[in-house]
Design brief:
Elements: E1 2-3, E2 15-27, E3 31-37, E4 42-48, H1 54-62, E5 68-77, E6 85-96, H2 110-115, H3 117-120, H4 124-146, E7 150-151, E8 157-158, E9 170-173, E10 176-180, H5 185-195, E11 197-205, E12 218-227, H6 231-252, H7 254-259, H8 264-267, E13 276-278, H9 279-288, H10 302-309, E14 316-319, E15 342-347, E16 352-360, H11 364-373, H12 382-386, E17 395-401, H13 402-410
Parallel strand pairs: 1-2, 4-6, 7-11, 13-14
Antiparallel strand pairs: 2-3, 2-5, 3-4, 5-6, 8-10, 9-10, 11-12, 12-17, 14-15, 15-16, 16-17
Subcellular location: Cytoplasm
GO biological process, one term: asparaginyl-tRNA aminoacylation
Keywords: Aminoacyl-tRNA synthetase, ATP-binding, Cytoplasm, Ligase, Nucleotide-binding, Protein biosynthesis
């Protein structure tokens, strides 16, 4: 009977065959312990010299790291193991013997591991982070599907910059210029006018020359847009969504969080509602914390966000940023011209901003004025302005950065570990 490591609990006391790779091993004179992995999980295989043919025990001693094998044996309960089961090995069939596998159990430098990312993702820690990433994605679809959202896929090639920046990758689209998308937001606004509540999930690109542990050149975003949702409505969706994905990881990734030695007591506190602090209050808070050089109108950097987040056990919203700091499409505050109806969600434990969102400008003349002020009133935004001509309504949306969110939930040191093949300022390989 063939099965996978994830399914062995169904076969306690039975003999099964598992296709696996040998991640590590240790042996004494009469017993060998094989650390097996098959993509679905990790488990130990135990080979006892007195219980198998001599050929099988010799194979167990000589098999090399990352060789592929079929291993047959009896599934047994193992209460000492976090996994809960082990395999009493009866037979080993080598499929392909790996020679001189470059990533050994010793310590390796980050650049070496990044050069071998195609192999590094096989390791137990990286495997666990990828499983948590998958759970966040699965829970995302569950949350939005259960709350009446429709999945819409915006284009990756665009003719304009959603945020009017120059941090774009430009390419030729036959005889005209095009850009790799830095956000699907504008297209999602159009979709919301057709379908009410929508969300997208896809790659985005920022030609930002940053080397911090929070930045990637290519990353994935979840971007919901909601017709007839005002600013406060959107904040409620954001905190409920983040709470949902964190609780889903806690429920479904216990083993992976254990491998990563993540302090789950911190994650257990992540339930809506979340605290809020206005930009004005944040400036005063930072001045009192010793950031004497920051002034009203300045943007926040990583140290500022971390200082604010350290005062809370949950993610915190920073709301109502200055108009001058934010893109053209954000709705102004009803009683103040100097701030807009926006919020950034800052994750605890120094992981920084994981969500940016706002109510969008829905008045045609105001949006036209904003586009003029930003030098963007050209043909590329004609269709976007038209959305305010034909049945415009108040609407809001936000974008969650997947990799930063996974880094926070998993406790990873750097976002490069939270995407299978990271694209960084100095890295396009492998």
């Amino acid at each position: 009977m063939k099965t996978t490591i994830a399914e062995v609990g169904k076969y306690v006391g039975q003999v099964v065959t598992i296709g696996a790779w040998l991640s590590n091993k240790r042996s004494s004179g009469k017993i060998a312990f094989l650390q097996l992995r098959d993509g679905t999980g990790f488990m130990q295989g135990v080979v006892v010299i007195s219980e198998v043919d001599e050929k099988v025990f010799e194979a167990a001693k000589s098999i090399t790291q990352e060789s592929s094998i079929y291993v047959t044996g009896e599934i047994r309960v193992d209460e000492r193991s976090p996994f809960g089961y082990e395999l009493g090995v009866q037979n080993i069939e080598v499929i392909q013997e790996a020679v001189d596998y470059p990533i050994t159990p010793k310590e390796h430098g980050v650049e070496f591991l990044m050069d071998h990312r195609h192999l590094w993702i096989r390791s137990k820690k990286q495997h666990s982070i990828m499983k948590i990433r998958n759970e966040v994605i699965r829970a995302t679809y569950e949350f939005f599907n259960e709350n009446g959202f429709v999945k819409v896929d915006p284009p990756i090639l665009t003719g304009s910059a959603p945020e009017g920046t120059t941090e774009l990758f430009q390419t030729k689209y036959f005889d005209e210029d095009a850009f790799l998308s830095q956000s699907g937001q504008l297209y999602m606004e159009a979709a919301a006018m057709a379908l009410g509540k929508v969300f997208s999930f896809g790659p985005t690109f920022r030609a930002e020359k940053s080397k911090t542990r929070r930045h990637l050149i290519e990353f994935w975003m979840i971007e919901p847009e909601m017709a007839f949702y005002e600013f406060e409505d959107s904040l409620k969706v954001q905190e409920e969504y983040v709470s949902f994905i964190v609780q889903s990881v806690l429920k479904n990734c216990k083993l992976e969080l254990g491998v990563l030695e993540r302090d789950v007591t911190k994650l257990e506190k992540i339930t809506a509602p979340f605290p809020r602090i206005s930009y004005d209050e944040a400036i005063e808070f930072l001045k009192n914390k010793g950031f004497t050089d920051i002034e009203w109108g300045d943007d926040f950097g990583a140290p500022h966000e971390t200082a604010i987040a350290e005062s809370y056990e949950k993610p915190v919203f920073i709301t109502h940023y200055p108009t001058s700091l934010k893109p053209f499409y954000m709705q102004p505050h009803p009683t103040r011209e100097d701030v807009v109806l926006c919020a950034d969600m800052i994750a605890p434990e120094g992981y920084g901003e994981i969500i940016g969102g706002s109510e969008r400008v829905h008045d045609h003349d105001l949006l036209k004025q904003r586009l003029e002020e930003h030098g963007l009133l050209d043909g590329a935004y004609k269709w976007y302005l038209q959305l305010r001509q034909y049945g415009s309504v108040p609407h809001s949306g936000f974008g969650l950065g997947l990799e930063r969110t996974v880094a926070w939930i998993s406790g990873a040191d750097h976002v490069r570990e939270t995407i299978p093949f990271p694209r960084l300022l100095n890295r396009l390989y492998p």
